[in-house]
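Me: Here is a favour to ask of a fellow structure person. Could you put it straight underneath, so I can go through it closely?

Assistant:
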Amino acid sequence: MTSRQTGRACEATAKPALEHSSRPGSVRRTLEILEVVADLGGASAKEIADATGLPLPTVYRLVRELLDSDYLVHIREEKRFELGYKLHQLGVSLHQQIGVPREVRAEVTALHQHIGAAAYFAVHRGSQIALVFTADSVECPRLRPLEFGFHEAAHATAFGKILLASMPLAQRALHLDPEPMPRFGPGTITSHRQLGEQLDRVADRGVAWEFGELQAGATCAAAAVRGAGGVLIGSVAVSGPDASLAARRTEVEAALRSTASRVSRFYRSGSTR
């Protein structure tokens, strides 16, 4: 336990008059939980309770709120909690121009202009997907903001299919919800078998598509960005109304592969050429 965590535990024991601040929804206690999870690189409910001095029932209530808001994620097989994509999203809002290299922003912007559709760059972090850069315009707007993370709808998104197609079958099985998987749009695939067949094609072709699977009337396509050794770093993607992309599959796929190749080259060598 770090000295800061020990101090928190002692404070909780030595100052019972402040016990009211541990009620569910307390901003201070909620932030302490996030700090503990960050300090430990992931923590179980008991570890959080030991570090903060909070009773386990209180920890579970506050953690549930953080899970519901995507500030934490639950790693089921390890019975631990890790920081959620929403925290990364907040950091991106502040540091976007610094956090995404100029060369990568230029490639995604060029993709947007070439295809005439909103273009995106997402980073894959474990089983999470964080959207870190978007290039769009009034004529080609981005998809409306979502109230959940891409990792929660991986089976229904082009980003998610790139991630799932890169996973070993055993890891993929742990990541997917039981059948029928949640339906988000009229085209959502809810069967493991049907999704598996599509993921085989994604792995073979290198491009994932979604047709009205997350949002009705919206089509998206994504291609993988890979670093040294073929490690998955993220994805580049485009989105637009069904009519504008579905009929241009060959053109869209060629542009995505080309952009993903140059961005991958940048992360491997520091240059897109």
About this structure: The CA atoms of residues 16 and 22 lie 10 Å apart. The beta strands are 72-75, 80-83, 118-125, 128-135, 207-211, 218-226, 232-241. The two ends are 47 Å apart (CA to CA).
